[in-house]
Amino acid sequence: MNPGHLFALTPEQKERYKVQPDQFHPTDRPSSLEEYEVPDFIEKAGLRLWYNTQSDSYRRHWHDAQEIVVPLEGNYSVSVQGTNYLLKPGDFFLIPPGELHELSEPSPGARFVFLMDLEPFCHQTGFLQVRSLLSQPVLISFASCPEIYEKIITLFMQIVLLYWGSSPSWHLLICARMLEIFACYADYRIAGAAPRMEMPRENSGLGKKFDRLLEYLQKNYTKDLSLDEAAQRVGVSKYYFTRVFRSRMGQTFSEYLTYLRIRSAEELLKNGGVSVADVCTACGYDSVSSFNRNFRKLKGYSPTEFRKLYQATRLL
InterPro entries per the record (predicted)? Predict the structure, then answer.
Protein backbone atom coordinates (compact mmCIF):
# COMPACT_ATOMS: atom_id res chain seq x y z
CA MET A 1 0.00 0.00 0.00
CA ASN A 2 1.20 3.49 -0.86
CA PRO A 3 0.10 5.84 1.94
CA GLY A 4 0.73 8.96 -0.14
CA HIS A 5 -2.97 9.66 -0.64
CA LEU A 6 -3.38 10.11 3.12
CA PHE A 7 -1.31 13.31 3.18
CA ALA A 8 -1.52 14.59 -0.41
CA LEU A 9 -2.46 18.25 -0.93
CA THR A 10 -4.29 19.85 -3.82
CA PRO A 11 -2.69 22.79 -5.67
CA GLU A 12 -5.28 25.08 -4.06
CA GLN A 13 -4.39 23.85 -0.57
CA LYS A 14 -0.68 24.37 -1.20
CA GLU A 15 -1.31 28.02 -2.02
CA ARG A 16 -3.78 28.63 0.81
CA TYR A 17 -1.57 27.03 3.46
CA LYS A 18 1.26 29.44 2.71
CA VAL A 19 -0.77 32.16 4.47
CA GLN A 20 -1.37 31.94 8.22
CA PRO A 21 -5.02 32.16 9.34
CA ASP A 22 -4.18 35.19 11.51
CA GLN A 23 -2.06 36.77 8.73
CA PHE A 24 1.03 36.34 10.91
CA HIS A 25 4.42 36.95 9.29
CA PRO A 26 7.47 35.54 11.07
CA THR A 27 10.28 37.91 11.94
CA ASP A 28 13.90 37.07 11.32
CA ARG A 29 15.68 35.73 14.39
CA PRO A 30 19.40 36.08 14.95
CA SER A 31 21.16 32.84 14.08
CA SER A 32 23.17 31.31 16.89
CA LEU A 33 23.96 27.84 18.06
CA GLU A 34 21.79 26.42 20.80
CA GLU A 35 19.35 29.34 20.62
CA TYR A 36 16.30 29.39 22.85
CA GLU A 37 13.26 30.09 20.70
CA VAL A 38 10.01 31.64 21.89
CA PRO A 39 7.28 29.99 19.77
CA ASP A 40 5.10 32.41 17.80
CA PHE A 41 1.81 30.89 18.89
CA ILE A 42 -1.54 32.17 17.68
CA GLU A 43 -2.78 34.52 20.39
CA LYS A 44 -4.43 32.65 23.30
CA ALA A 45 -4.21 29.38 21.36
CA GLY A 46 -0.85 27.90 22.37
CA LEU A 47 -0.16 26.48 18.91
CA ARG A 48 1.10 27.33 15.44
CA LEU A 49 1.10 25.18 12.28
CA TRP A 50 3.41 25.97 9.38
CA TYR A 51 3.28 24.75 5.80
CA ASN A 52 6.97 25.08 5.04
CA THR A 53 8.54 24.99 1.58
CA GLN A 54 11.72 26.90 2.43
CA SER A 55 15.08 25.34 1.64
CA ASP A 56 16.74 26.97 4.65
CA SER A 57 18.11 24.94 7.53
CA TYR A 58 17.26 25.71 11.14
CA ARG A 59 20.30 25.67 13.38
CA ARG A 60 20.31 24.03 16.77
CA HIS A 61 17.59 25.52 18.93
CA TRP A 62 15.10 24.55 21.61
CA HIS A 63 11.76 25.70 22.95
CA ASP A 64 9.10 24.70 25.45
CA ALA A 65 6.65 23.48 22.81
CA GLN A 66 6.03 19.99 21.47
CA GLU A 67 7.09 20.00 17.82
CA ILE A 68 5.68 17.72 15.14
CA VAL A 69 7.32 17.45 11.71
CA VAL A 70 5.52 15.78 8.79
CA PRO A 71 7.38 15.85 5.44
CA LEU A 72 5.07 15.96 2.42
CA GLU A 73 7.48 16.15 -0.51
CA GLY A 74 11.15 15.19 -0.30
CA ASN A 75 13.11 13.92 2.67
CA TYR A 76 13.86 16.02 5.74
CA SER A 77 16.76 15.71 8.17
CA VAL A 78 16.21 16.23 11.90
CA SER A 79 18.82 15.99 14.62
CA VAL A 80 17.69 15.74 18.26
CA GLN A 81 20.35 15.81 20.99
CA GLY A 82 22.94 14.64 18.47
CA THR A 83 20.88 11.73 17.09
CA ASN A 84 20.08 12.08 13.38
CA TYR A 85 16.79 11.09 11.76
CA LEU A 86 16.09 11.09 8.02
CA LEU A 87 12.35 11.60 7.60
CA LYS A 88 10.54 10.46 4.49
CA PRO A 89 7.28 11.86 3.07
CA GLY A 90 4.39 10.98 5.36
CA ASP A 91 6.51 10.28 8.43
CA PHE A 92 5.08 11.67 11.68
CA PHE A 93 7.89 12.81 13.98
CA LEU A 94 7.48 14.26 17.48
CA ILE A 95 10.24 16.28 19.15
CA PRO A 96 9.88 16.63 22.95
CA PRO A 97 9.75 20.10 24.53
CA GLY A 98 13.10 21.45 25.69
CA GLU A 99 15.26 19.26 23.43
CA LEU A 100 18.09 20.73 21.36
CA HIS A 101 17.32 20.01 17.71
CA GLU A 102 18.09 21.22 14.21
CA LEU A 103 16.28 20.82 10.92
CA SER A 104 17.73 20.66 7.41
CA GLU A 105 16.45 19.93 3.94
CA PRO A 106 18.69 17.60 1.89
CA SER A 107 16.56 18.21 -1.22
CA PRO A 108 13.76 20.64 -2.19
CA GLY A 109 10.39 19.74 -0.75
CA ALA A 110 7.56 20.68 1.60
CA ARG A 111 6.52 19.74 5.10
CA PHE A 112 4.24 20.66 8.01
CA VAL A 113 5.82 21.88 11.24
CA PHE A 114 3.42 22.01 14.18
CA LEU A 115 4.26 23.64 17.52
CA MET A 116 1.98 23.13 20.51
CA ASP A 117 2.06 23.90 24.22
CA LEU A 118 1.39 20.71 26.18
CA GLU A 119 0.79 22.34 29.56
CA PRO A 120 -3.02 22.67 29.13
CA PHE A 121 -3.20 18.88 28.75
CA CYS A 122 -1.25 18.10 31.92
CA HIS A 123 -4.33 18.06 34.14
CA GLN A 124 -6.11 15.54 31.93
CA THR A 125 -6.54 12.08 33.45
CA GLY A 126 -3.91 9.75 32.02
CA PHE A 127 -1.77 12.45 30.41
CA LEU A 128 1.08 11.93 32.89
CA GLN A 129 1.64 8.55 31.29
CA VAL A 130 1.45 10.01 27.78
CA ARG A 131 3.91 12.78 28.60
CA SER A 132 6.40 10.23 29.84
CA LEU A 133 6.13 8.33 26.54
CA LEU A 134 6.71 11.63 24.72
CA SER A 135 9.87 12.48 26.67
CA GLN A 136 11.93 10.94 23.85
CA PRO A 137 11.66 11.57 20.07
CA VAL A 138 8.89 9.51 18.47
CA LEU A 139 8.83 8.42 14.83
CA ILE A 140 5.56 7.01 13.51
CA SER A 141 5.81 5.82 9.92
CA PHE A 142 3.90 3.44 7.69
CA ALA A 143 6.83 1.01 7.89
CA SER A 144 7.51 1.18 11.63
CA CYS A 145 3.96 1.47 13.02
CA PRO A 146 1.55 0.07 10.40
CA GLU A 147 -1.09 -0.69 13.06
CA ILE A 148 -1.63 2.98 13.96
CA TYR A 149 -0.07 4.94 11.11
CA GLU A 150 -3.21 5.53 9.04
CA LYS A 151 -5.18 6.71 12.06
CA ILE A 152 -2.39 9.04 13.26
CA ILE A 153 -1.74 10.69 9.89
CA THR A 154 -5.49 10.99 9.20
CA LEU A 155 -6.03 12.76 12.53
CA PHE A 156 -3.13 15.09 11.79
CA MET A 157 -4.48 15.98 8.35
CA GLN A 158 -7.82 16.75 10.04
CA ILE A 159 -5.89 19.17 12.26
CA VAL A 160 -4.53 20.82 9.11
CA LEU A 161 -8.04 21.27 7.70
CA LEU A 162 -9.29 22.69 11.00
CA TYR A 163 -6.36 25.08 11.30
CA TRP A 164 -7.03 26.64 7.91
CA GLY A 165 -10.79 26.13 8.17
CA SER A 166 -13.63 28.34 9.37
CA SER A 167 -15.05 26.51 12.39
CA PRO A 168 -15.57 28.80 15.42
CA SER A 169 -14.49 25.83 17.57
CA TRP A 170 -11.32 25.12 15.60
CA HIS A 171 -9.05 25.29 18.66
CA LEU A 172 -11.10 22.86 20.74
CA LEU A 173 -11.36 20.48 17.80
CA ILE A 174 -7.60 20.56 17.21
CA CYS A 175 -6.94 19.84 20.89
CA ALA A 176 -9.39 16.94 20.71
CA ARG A 177 -7.56 15.48 17.69
CA MET A 178 -4.20 15.84 19.46
CA LEU A 179 -5.51 14.07 22.54
CA GLU A 180 -6.75 11.27 20.29
CA ILE A 181 -3.31 11.05 18.67
CA PHE A 182 -1.63 10.87 22.07
CA ALA A 183 -4.10 8.24 23.32
CA CYS A 184 -3.69 6.15 20.18
CA TYR A 185 0.09 6.14 20.53
CA ALA A 186 -0.03 5.43 24.28
CA ASP A 187 -2.37 2.46 23.80
CA TYR A 188 -0.13 1.16 21.02
CA ARG A 189 3.01 1.43 23.14
CA ILE A 190 1.45 -0.18 26.20
CA ALA A 191 -0.08 -3.05 24.24
CA GLY A 192 3.08 -3.64 22.23
CA ALA A 193 5.56 -3.41 25.09
CA ALA A 194 4.39 -6.60 26.81
CA PRO A 195 1.66 -8.28 24.75
CA ARG A 196 1.56 -11.44 26.89
CA MET A 197 1.54 -9.62 30.21
CA GLU A 198 -1.70 -8.80 31.98
CA MET A 199 -1.80 -5.01 32.21
CA PRO A 200 -3.78 -3.10 34.83
CA ARG A 201 -6.79 -1.38 33.29
CA GLU A 202 -7.73 2.17 34.15
CA ASN A 203 -10.86 1.06 36.00
CA SER A 204 -9.19 -1.77 37.89
CA GLY A 205 -8.00 -1.51 41.48
CA LEU A 206 -4.39 -1.91 40.41
CA GLY A 207 -4.75 0.64 37.63
CA LYS A 208 -6.18 3.19 40.06
CA LYS A 209 -3.33 2.59 42.50
CA PHE A 210 -0.85 3.10 39.67
CA ASP A 211 -2.51 6.37 38.69
CA ARG A 212 -2.46 7.54 42.30
CA LEU A 213 1.26 6.77 42.42
CA LEU A 214 1.85 8.94 39.34
CA GLU A 215 -0.08 11.77 40.97
CA TYR A 216 1.97 11.32 44.15
CA LEU A 217 5.22 11.47 42.17
CA GLN A 218 4.11 14.69 40.46
CA LYS A 219 3.84 16.35 43.88
CA ASN A 220 6.64 14.54 45.74
CA TYR A 221 9.40 13.93 43.20
CA THR A 222 11.85 15.75 45.49
CA LYS A 223 11.53 13.02 48.12
CA ASP A 224 13.85 10.03 48.18
CA LEU A 225 11.30 7.40 47.13
CA SER A 226 12.84 3.99 46.45
CA LEU A 227 11.68 1.38 43.96
CA ASP A 228 10.62 -0.87 46.86
CA GLU A 229 8.48 1.88 48.40
CA ALA A 230 6.86 2.66 45.05
CA ALA A 231 5.99 -1.01 44.53
CA GLN A 232 4.51 -1.17 48.04
CA ARG A 233 2.28 1.82 47.27
CA VAL A 234 0.84 -0.04 44.30
CA GLY A 235 0.65 -3.30 46.23
CA VAL A 236 2.70 -5.52 43.93
CA SER A 237 6.16 -7.08 43.97
CA LYS A 238 9.15 -5.00 42.94
CA TYR A 239 9.71 -7.30 39.95
CA TYR A 240 6.16 -6.97 38.65
CA PHE A 241 6.10 -3.22 39.35
CA THR A 242 9.29 -2.76 37.33
CA ARG A 243 7.77 -4.51 34.31
CA VAL A 244 4.44 -2.68 34.54
CA PHE A 245 6.04 0.73 35.05
CA ARG A 246 8.39 0.43 32.10
CA SER A 247 5.68 -0.87 29.76
CA ARG A 248 3.24 1.88 30.75
CA MET A 249 5.66 4.80 31.00
CA GLY A 250 8.28 3.93 28.40
CA GLN A 251 11.11 4.24 30.94
CA THR A 252 12.21 2.88 34.28
CA PHE A 253 10.99 4.22 37.61
CA SER A 254 14.37 5.85 38.25
CA GLU A 255 14.43 7.44 34.78
CA TYR A 256 10.94 8.83 35.26
CA LEU A 257 11.82 10.33 38.65
CA THR A 258 14.88 11.97 37.09
CA TYR A 259 12.72 13.27 34.23
CA LEU A 260 10.31 14.93 36.69
CA ARG A 261 13.16 16.54 38.62
CA ILE A 262 14.96 17.88 35.56
CA ARG A 263 11.72 19.20 34.08
CA SER A 264 11.13 21.13 37.31
CA ALA A 265 14.73 22.33 37.30
CA GLU A 266 14.26 23.82 33.82
CA GLU A 267 11.47 26.06 35.09
CA LEU A 268 13.44 27.15 38.16
CA LEU A 269 16.56 27.90 36.12
CA LYS A 270 14.60 30.35 33.99
CA ASN A 271 14.32 32.47 37.13
CA GLY A 272 17.61 34.34 37.37
CA GLY A 273 17.15 34.93 41.09
CA VAL A 274 17.63 31.27 42.07
CA SER A 275 21.15 29.84 42.22
CA VAL A 276 22.02 26.51 40.61
CA ALA A 277 22.76 25.10 44.08
CA ASP A 278 19.30 26.13 45.30
CA VAL A 279 17.68 24.62 42.21
CA CYS A 280 19.59 21.42 42.90
CA THR A 281 18.22 21.23 46.44
CA ALA A 282 14.70 22.26 45.44
CA CYS A 283 14.53 19.40 42.93
CA GLY A 284 15.54 16.71 45.40
CA TYR A 285 19.27 16.37 44.78
CA ASP A 286 21.81 16.17 47.61
CA SER A 287 24.77 16.56 45.27
CA VAL A 288 25.33 19.36 42.75
CA SER A 289 27.59 17.09 40.71
CA SER A 290 24.83 14.46 40.48
CA PHE A 291 22.34 17.17 39.49
CA ASN A 292 24.70 18.54 36.83
CA ARG A 293 25.37 15.05 35.47
CA ASN A 294 21.69 14.14 35.18
CA PHE A 295 20.77 17.52 33.71
CA ARG A 296 23.48 17.28 31.04
CA LYS A 297 22.54 13.68 30.27
CA LEU A 298 18.91 14.62 29.57
CA LYS A 299 19.31 18.10 28.09
CA GLY A 300 22.75 18.00 26.45
CA TYR A 301 24.14 20.97 28.38
CA SER A 302 24.76 22.01 31.96
CA PRO A 303 22.24 23.90 34.16
CA THR A 304 24.41 27.02 33.94
CA GLU A 305 24.58 26.81 30.14
CA PHE A 306 20.81 26.30 30.01
CA ARG A 307 20.21 29.46 32.05
CA LYS A 308 22.61 31.56 29.97
CA LEU A 309 21.02 30.45 26.70
CA TYR A 310 17.52 31.17 27.97
CA GLN A 311 18.35 34.58 29.45
CA ALA A 312 20.37 35.69 26.42
CA THR A 313 17.39 35.09 24.15
CA ARG A 314 14.95 36.83 26.49
CA LEU A 315 17.06 40.00 26.18
CA LEU A 316 16.73 40.08 22.39
Answer: AraC-bd, Homeodomain-like_sf, HTH-like, HTH_AraC, HTH_AraC-typ_CS, RmlC-like_jellyroll, Tscrpt_reg_AraC-type_HTH
